[in-house]
Amino acid sequence: MKLKVLGCSGGIGGERRTMALLLDDDVLIDAGSGVGSLSLEAMAQVDHVFLTHCHLDHTAFLPFLADAAAFLRQRPLEVHALPETIAALRENMLNGRLWPDYSALPSIDNPYIRFHPLHAGQPVPLGTRVITPLPARHAVPALGYRIDSGAASWIYSGDTAFHAAFWEGLAAMDNLKYLMVEVTFLNANRQGAAISGHMTAELLARGLEMLRRPVSLLIAHMESGREVETMAEVHAAAGEWQPRPVQAGQVFEF
Ligand SMILES: [Zn+2]
Ligand SMILES: [Zn+2]
After folding, report:
1. How far is the CA of 145 from the CAs of 66, 104, 124, 129, 180, in angstroms?
2. Long-range contacts at 197-200 (CB < 8 A, ≥ 24 apart)
3. CA of 138 to the centre of ligand 1 (A)
4. How far is CA 172 from CA 166, 176, 199, 210, 217, in A?
5. Secondary-structure breakdown of the chain: helix, strand, coil percentages, each rounded to the nearest 5
6. Which of 48, 110, 172, 245 measures 20 to 30 Å from 236, CA to CA?
7. How far apart are the CA of 121 and the centre of ligand 2, in A?
8. Beta 20-23 vs 27-29: how paired, if at all?
9. What is the tens place of the pLDDT at every residue in 21-63?
């Protein structure tokens, strides 16, 4: 299995792109501005989109993706998300005002987007690959994902505060290899992190204490312009895990 990071920043500016991961050629995890890096032909090959939550830095390019490749694909984009996320997109995005209702256009029988509700802990098999939603705690209902090739698992926390259920789940995984976790805020902004449901380096260290097993640790979703300071705090809090900032364009095979 091949995973390409299209976007992994907490915001935009220069080369920064918001969250989107391409799994092989046909599956996207989140649809932030990283989706805009794909060629039109690559967009047409995407069949499934798994969303962590409704926030725009994870969903803003979903309508553009459905639009851009529509005449090439001839089949709906299968969008998997929590029922609350689907409701938020229907009410606020695909509502006939901000954007047309692509879940009913061009026809009810063959729409641009078809929604599939999912729930934490319920695996979705796609051939030999299995994508399992993981529990998260954020300002709105949210998920992380386990992407399991069979040989190894790649974990993406999504947007989340410290959440014991997430870390307990990781500790029980037999083939855990990569952990991409958000560290949005500096330690000094722990109050902002608590209110908005995000991580700091201190909270990351608390989670890693529960993990107690080796993992390749990747840091994502840092505030634009504060990546260097944030990584310094991550190294201070969890240096023994050899954390690395994940970069747009990186490819992982597992
Ligand atoms: Zn969010
Ligand atoms: Zn976000």
Report:
1. 22, 28, 11, 13, 10
2. 197/137, 197/138, 197/139, 197/142, 197/159, 197/160, 197/161, 198/138, 198/159, 198/160, 198/161, 199/157, 199/160, 199/161, 199/162, 200/233
3. 7
4. 10, 9, 22, 11, 17
5. 30, 25, 45
6. 172
7. 21
8. antiparallel
9. 999 999 999 999 999 999 999 999 999 999 999 999 999 999 9
Q: Which ligand is closest in space to the CA of residue 196?
A: 1
CA of 74 to the centre of ligand 1 (A): 31
Residue 109 structure tokens: 């029988």
Spell out the domain ranges in the chain: 2-253
Cα of 194 vs centre of ligand 1, distance in Å, is: 13
Give residue 109's pLDDT.
93
Pair of tokens at residue 231: 């990584």
The amino acid that residue 246 corresponds to is V
243 Rama sector, left if φ>0, alpha if ψ -120 to 50, beta otherwise? beta
